[in-house]
Amino acid sequence: MTTFITNDTVATHYWHLLDDGRIQCDLCPRFCKLHEGQRGLCFVRQNLQQQIVMTSYGRSSGFAIDPIEKKPLNHFLPGTAIFSFGTAGCNLACKFCQNWDISKSREMDTLMSLASPDLIAKTALEQGCSSVAYTYNDPVVFHEYAIDTAQACRELGLKSVAVSAGYVCAEPRVEFYRWMDAANIDLKAFSEDFYYKITGGHLQPVLETLLYLKHETQVWFELTTLIIPGENDSEAELEAMTQWVVENLGPDVPMHFTAFHPDWKMIDKPHTPTSSLLNARNIAIKNGVRYAYVGNVHDKLAESTYCHQCGELLIGRDWYVLSDWNLDAGGHCQFCGTKCAGLFNPKPGDWGAKRQAVRL
C-alpha cells in the first residue's frame, strides 16, 4: 500500500537509520547516506522527516506509444504497440548517457505530465497497447510508482516491461519483478573497471540481477550492450561477456549490440561503426548465443530472427517494421518445428515503426 506524504511524494520501505542520525537508502547498491533534506544521487529519493521518500510519484517526463522492438524486445509480442513512460533521475552516473536530459534532470518542474497508475493503465488499454514500458530513465528509482502501475495494468490484462540497468538490491528486486512480465537489462560492459569509472557503479550487482531473473522468475528478458569504441568493444571482453551469458543464463537470452553516439560527458568518442556491432554479434553467435542482434544501425540481416536449429528466417525486421513471419501459432519454426524462445501471439502485430506522443 502506497503511503502519500504529499500528492507527488510517497513514503518508501527500503532504508534504515544510521548511528550518526543519517538515513541509508537500501533500494540500490549505491547505499546513499543522507542527512535531513538531502537527496540521493538519483535526486528523486530524499531524507524527509527521518524517512526516505520518493519525490516524483505520478510525475512523468512524457508518454508515448512505441513499437515493442524499440525497448528493445524482439521475442516478446513482436509488432505490438507498447505504452511508454518514465520520470526523472537515475541511480547510475553514466558518462555516455543517451537520455541525459531525462535521467539527469534536476528541474522537477519540467515533469509536466501528471498521471495516476490507474489512468496510465486505462489509457494504454484504450490506445490498443498490449503492454506498458517503464523506460526513458531507470524504473529502479521510481520503484513504487512502477509497481503500482504494473498492478493496475495486470488488473486490465496488460503486460509490464522494465527497461533497466538492473542496479538494484536483492529485496526490492524481488518485489519489483514480481509485477513485471518482461525486461530489457542494460549490460553496459563486462568489466568492473568500466562500471566503476564510467557509470559510477559496479558490475556484480547487475550480474546478480540477471541470475535472479533467469533462475528465480518467469520474467522474459533480453540484454542490451551499447558498444562504445575503445571502452567495451575489445574481442577479449566480448568473448568473456557472451561466454558468461551462455554458461549462466543459457543460449536463449537474446543479446542486442547497439551503436553509441557522442553525448552527455562522452563527446570525444566517435560513433560506433557497424563493423564493431557485427563483430560483437558474430562473437556472440560463435559462443552459442542463439539470438543476437544489432541496433541503432540499418542492417536487415542482423536485425532479423533465425531458427537456431535449421537456420531459416523466422522474423524479418527492417528497423522496427516486421516483414517475414515464419512462426506457427505456438511460436515454432514453420520449416522444422523447433520452438523459438520468447512470447509470441499467433499473428504478429502491425504497429510498425510509429511513435505516437500521448497527453493524459
Can you tell me about this structure?
This protein has 2 domains: 4-54; 59-358, Aldolase class I (TIM Barrel). The chain has a 9-stranded mixed β-sheet. A 4-stranded antiparallel β-sheet has the order 1-2-7-6, with no helix packed on it. A 3-stranded antiparallel β-sheet has the order 3-4-5, with no helix packed on it. The chain has 360 residues and is an alpha/beta fold. It contains 9 helices and 21 strands. Helix 7 (235-249) links the parallel strand 15 and strand 16. Keywords: 4Fe-4S, Carbohydrate metabolism, Glucose metabolism, Iron, Iron-sulfur, Metal-binding, S-adenosyl-L-methionine.
Short description:
This protein has helices spanning 100-103, 117-126, 143-155, 170-177, 192-199, 203-216, 235-249, 274-286, 300-303, and strands at 4-6, 9-11, 15-17, 23-25, 33-34, 45-47, 52-54, 59-60, 62-67, 81-86, 113-114, 131-134, 159-164, 182-186, 220-227, 255-259, 292-295, 305-306, 313-318, 321-325, 356-358. The protein is of the alpha/beta class. β18 and β19 form a beta hairpin.
Known CATH architecture of the largest domain: Alpha-Beta Barrel
CATH class type of the largest domain: Alpha Beta
Main beta-sheet strand count, sense and barrel state: 9 strands, mixed
Q: What proportion of the residues is helical, as a percent range?
A: 10-25%
CATH superfamily of the largest domain: Aldolase class I
- What is the oligomeric state here? single chain
Radius of gyration: 20 Å
In total, the number of strands is 21
Q: Which runs of at least 5 residues are low in confidence (pLDDT < 50)? A: none
In terms of structural class, how would the helical and strand content be classed? alpha/beta
Structural domains: how many = 2
Order of adjacent strands in the largest pleated sheet: 17-16-15-14-13-12-10-9-21
What order do the SSEs take from the amino end to the carboxyl end, as H and E? EEEEEEEEEEHEHEHEHEHHEHEHEHEEEE
CATH topology of the largest domain: TIM Barrel
Q: Proportion of β residues?
A: 15-25%
Q: Distance N terminus to C terminus?
A: 24 Å
Number of helices: 9
Mean pLDDT: 94
